[in-house]
């Protein structure tokens, strides 16, 4: 159990939809510990399992000193009448920030390690993190949500970093 390295853009695990967790075993418990330790660093809002190389549906968050996790999260509600267009970044796309439209409010339903239902919801940064991490688990990066001109800039910047 430890803080794990973050996979970066270009790694195929980031573009592969994650598998549902069907059994809570030592491997899943270890994954949750690693997710919690990996997210518990200044400037990290969330970490999805595939960002640490594990293709299972789980993520952790670290918003306003609230650290937690959820297994098999489903994004069940996103506000469609209020948006936020702040700059968004990603540990898997280091050093790049672009304006990304997200719902102002989001709600995720999943389970904990005991199989009990977990509901995580919030506004602002928490909503952004919930949407961002669920995208990761579906094999998407925030770059996929950028307006065309911004996406073009982002892709150029990524190529220049390589």
TrEMBL record:
Its EC number is 3.5.1.88. Pfam families: Pep_deformylase. Its cofactor is Fe(2+). The keyword Signal does not apply. One of its GO terms (molecular function) is peptide deformylase activity. Keywords: Hydrolase, Iron, Metal-binding, Protein biosynthesis. The active site is at residue 133. Gene3D superfamilies: Peptide deformylase. It catalyses: N-terminal N-formyl-L-methionyl-[peptide] + H2O = N-terminal L-methionyl-[peptide] + formate. InterPro entries: Peptide_deformylase, Peptide_deformylase_sf. CDD domains: Pep_deformylase. Binds 1 Fe(2+) ion. Fe cation binds at residues 90, 132, 136. Belongs to the polypeptide deformylase family. Removes the formyl group from the N-terminal Met of newly synthesized proteins. Requires at least a dipeptide for an efficient rate of reaction. N-terminal L-methionine is a prerequisite for activity but the enzyme has broad specificity at other positions. This is Peptide deformylase. The lineage of its organism: Bacteria, Bacillati, Actinomycetota, Actinomycetes, Micrococcales.
